[in-house]
Design brief:
mainly beta, eight-stranded mixed β-sheet, 1 helix
Length: 331
């Protein structure tokens, strides 16, 4: 470790939170509770501008939440506008970009929203246990594109889902070319005990499933790896490792191991908890090509370095505003 760490003030304004926009140099900064309090900061060129112009119709709307998607620069804003909940769609890379009101496509607050930037003009929204297919250009929605879902996720322009008949399937974005991936209904019933799961594709052969109670499963034996409490995860493709965290622990799930030819029992992926002394862990990142881990526990940011024992020592880096987020970049 270096003897001292260098800190540099980028902006002196009292911002409350920061979120990175995937695939861009932009950070979304929050100064207050309204849309007019959202700013974009280009960390490379050190330029700051409002997300929407000061005279925007939606400037006084209260921000309820926002959705970002890996590989996409688009933002879906969920706001309170004059006492009504509305959904706004915009691309912050374009200065003065037009805000599209997509409220008509969301008859109720969605359980989950996903889109793939390669499927232009399409958004998929889970309402209760039904999957809606939303077309932005025509402002049309097919509210029951799929029904009685137990899990859903987009990967490589295809829809992967846990169906009501206790099978795991995939289909294309038009609802065609359906393929059965796992038809062992007894196995699925024993594994997926929760009500609903987010399906995350890590590769064509590897999927993970995160339940609403934080139980974590993977498409590799022994399938169930954490019973509850997982808050987030970050995949490191070169090493085939999944970084995951609960409020009190940071762990690494290794998918790269191979069973030895002389082993009688197959050895599946190994989950190692490398840090178990947290109190309120909310974020974690791979650092320096997976050599280290940076995580935020409440107001304190730590750096983890692996030790020979498999555990990791936590070095305090910096203290941040309570309730705010951090962002890590190697570029």
């Amino acid at each position: 470790y270096p003897a001292s760490w260098k800190h540099r003030v980028l902006l002196a304004a009292p911002f409350r939170d920061v979120t990175a926009l995937p695939g861009t140099r932009l950070l979304l900064l929050k100064k207050g509770p309204k849309v007019k309090d959202l700013f974009l900061y280009d960390w490379r060129w050190q330029k700051l501008r409002r997300l929407l112009p000061a005279h925007s119709l939606f400037g006084e709307a209260g921000v309820l939440s926002h959705v970002l998607m890996r590989g996409s620069s688009k933002i879906l804003l969920h706001v309170d506008f004059r006492g009504e909940e509305e959904f706004l769609w915009l691309d912050p890379r374009k200065k003065g970009s037009r805000v599209e009101d997509l409220t008509v496509l969301f008859p109720a607050k969605p359980r989950n929203v996903e889109w793939d930037p390669r499927l232009k003009g399409l958004i998929f929204s889970v309402q209760d246990r039904s999957l809606g297919r939303l077309e932005i250009m025509t402002k049309s929605v097919e509210p029951k594109f799929l029904e009685d879902l137990r899990g859903f996720g987009l990967f490589n322009r295809e829809i992967y889902f846990l169906a009501s008949d206790r099978t795991f399937r995939k289909m294309d974005s038009e609802g065609e070319n359906e393929e059965l991936l796992l038809g062992d209904t007894a196995l699925i019933q024993s594994l997926f005990v929760g009500k609903y799961y987010q399906v995350k594709g890590l590769s064509k052969e590897l999927f993970v499933f995160l339940g609403e109670e934080g139980d974590l499963l993977a498409s590799r034996f022994p399938y169930r790896f954490v019973e509850e409490g997982v808050l987030g995860m970050e995949f490191e493709p070169p090493g085939k490792r999944l970084l995951l965290w609960t409020s009190g622990k940071v762990g690494v799930l290794e998918f790269s191991g191979k069973s030895g030819e002389k082993e009688i029992f197959e050895k599946g992926p190994e989950l190692r908890w490398i840090f178990e002394e947290g109190r309120h862990i909310e974020q974690a990142f791979w650092v320096y090509e997976g050599s280290y881990v940076v995580f935020r526990d409440g107001e304190q940011v730590f750096l983890l370095e692996r030790e020979d024992s498999g555990k990791a020592s936590a070095l305090p880096l910096v203290q941040v505003r309570y309730g705010s987020s951090i962002y890590y970049s190697e570029g």
